[in-house]
Amino acid sequence: MNIEANNEDLRDFFHASGDSGTPLNCAVYYQNVPALQILLQRGANPEVAVNPTIGDCITEPWLPALGPLLDAGANPDWAFEAAVDAMSFDAAKICLDKGADPTLVLQKQFRKAEKKAEGCFDRQVDWDAGDGGNSTDDDEERAMERKSMREFVRSAARDHCELAGLYQQSRL
Q: Is the terminal CB of the chain with fewer CB neighbours within 10 Å at N or C?
C-alpha cells in the first residue's frame, strides 16, 4: 500500500476530511505508537495527522503523537495555530517546545481585533485563527477560556521575542 494512500476504508467517518484516510491518520485514530513510528520512519507526511492529534469538536486529542509528528517535519507554527483554535493549551505548549513562533498567531489576533473594532463582523473574521475560532455565541465559561488562550498566546509571544531580542512593549 502506498504510504500516502487515502483509502475510504481507513477514513474516520466522523471526521471525513479529504486526507483523513491515510495510514498515518489511522495510526493516530487508533493510538498505535509502533505504527505511527514506522510510518514516520518510512516517510509518511506528518502534516496530515496534526489536526486529529490535537483534536477538535469531533475527535479526541492524542497528544503523545504530536511531538513525533513535529520531529518528523510537521510545521510547528501551523500546529500551534491549530492548537490555539482547538483551545488546547497542552498541544500549544508542545508546539512551543518544538519551536513554534507564537507571534504569527498573535498577529492574527491583532488583525481580528482591529477588524472587529472597525465593525466588521463577517463570519470569516469571526473564525480567523488566534483565539479559538467563533466568539459570537460564547457562554461565560467559554469566553473566559478564550480570554485565557489570548493571554497565553501574548505571553508566549512576549517570551519568544525576548529570547530573540525583538521585544516591543507597544504591541505586546
A: N
